[in-house]
Amino acid sequence: MTTGRRSLILAGGGMKVAFQAGVLQVWLDEAGLTFDHVDGASGGTFNLAMYCQGMTGTEIADAWRRTNPVSGAGVDLASLTHRDALLTLDRYRSVTFPEWGLDWSKITATSREATFNVCDFGKYALEVVEPARMSEDLLVACVSLPMWFPPVRIDGQTYVDAVYLSDGNLEEAIRRGADEIWVIWTVSERGEWNPGFTNIYFQIIEIAANGHFHRIVQRIQQNNTAIAAGRPGEFGRRIELKILRAEVPVNYLLDIGKDRLHEAVNRGVQAAREWCSAAGIPLRPKAPRPEREQPSSLSFSEVMKGAIGLGETDFEDGYRKGRDEHTPLLTQLTISIDDIDEFVTLPEHEATVKGYVECAALSGRLPVESGTFNLLVDEGKPENKQMRYRLYLRNAAGEHYTLVGTKMVTDDPGADLWSDTTTLYTRVLDGRVRPADDDRATAVASGIISVHLLDFLHQLTTFRADGPPAARPATLARFGELFLGKLWDVYARHVLPWGPL
């Protein structure tokens, strides 16, 4: 018979725990979940400290939304001289912790049952610390990754990040009587080996963290199988595991883009809402986003040309048929980003589209009544991205069509960046079709259109930023950083798996 005791594991993951904070916004606030015990390891201890002092999930998520990843870590020449570490966490103490509002009097006096994990290097042992014993020094020790940050010495003991021993202490949750263990796991499980010192260092961490995590998950599964068969099992009771896994496109440590970190939080929100929906967990209504007085906006124009084949569903076949039968298609579009803050930090990266489509086979010029554009988005595999277009059209006869197009941005063999980012695989559907109904809709035509070089050069001259004059250069820069950073994820991930911007 279970007691219904529930533990939450805030696993490590370096800066990926910004995603974890987004999950907490949903699980704690929107789903109203409560936990009898919460455990944190490595970067997860940052979120645990905020939780212990009574912050809501949204407050924890907002703290990360305000975080600039370059404001915390600094370089200590003395440490480099002594070959102790490459960086220090001094600015976390002086800048980031105060910005988060960490209050040690509240943390140490919390009524919430919690455990922090740190490695006692002198004993080569995992040390579990309750909030009453915690301090700023111990929190820094919990994330002091060897080589990157110097160890923390407290009362003659040397402490470092516990990641090589455990990046999520499920055993402590079991020891404390958990019947349900909820885990937010963001350590990469892609199994993609990349060369270079930095990549190899973090891949070693992935070996240690994933290896230990997979072993304890397997032990719990074997325990549950034994219990179901009437045997005692290793832990003496059934333990239900609920794991939210995610491949978060943020480097564990080497990040300089505030927008990317903010997007990671919003990815966590999105993933947690989808996870709760799949699990049948009801959510409270979302709070409306606060409106800003004058958000910065951006627009640019794009021309694409090619051919479509009537009655075709295959893009290549449609293009060849359209070329042979002279059924060209041209798009003249203006893409408008109404709020650059939302565009660069929400995972959908969605803008609105106006303009027209020119195609004699579809009765001439068809105005875009409404449309959307999504820039370099992904679905669970951030190394493969798409640019998506959905244009709702109507011709002079009043007939409705939906143009659905996708640019497939994937690092295939050879130099394919130009073709990937300029080639739109296009399908025209009959009627006004919602995304969920694409597969059931009737395809009027399919083909391929693309941005030609001269049109691309002209496109570069059409970028216009609007909003407060002083913010316009930053608006253009933020769009450029987003675009280049996403391309890095695809084409330069062997140098560093995720773009630093």
Automatic annotation (TrEMBL):
UniProt keyword Hydrolase, yes or no: yes
Task: State whether keyword Lipid metabolism applies.
Answer: yes
* Highest taxon in the source lineage: Bacteria
Pfam families in the record: Patatin (PF01734)
Name all PNPLA domain ranges.
8-174
**Keywords annotated in UniProt:** FAD, Flavoprotein, Hydrolase, Lipid degradation, Lipid metabolism, Oxidoreductase
Q: Which residues form the active site?
A: S42 (nucleophile), D161 (proton acceptor)
Q: Tell me the cofactors it needs.
A: FAD
Per the Swiss-Prot or TrEMBL annotation, the motif GXSXG is positioned at 40-44
Indicate the family of this protein: Belongs to the GMC oxidoreductase family.
Q: What is the protein's given name?
A: PNPLA domain-containing protein
Q: Which organism is it from?
A: Actinoallomurus vinaceus
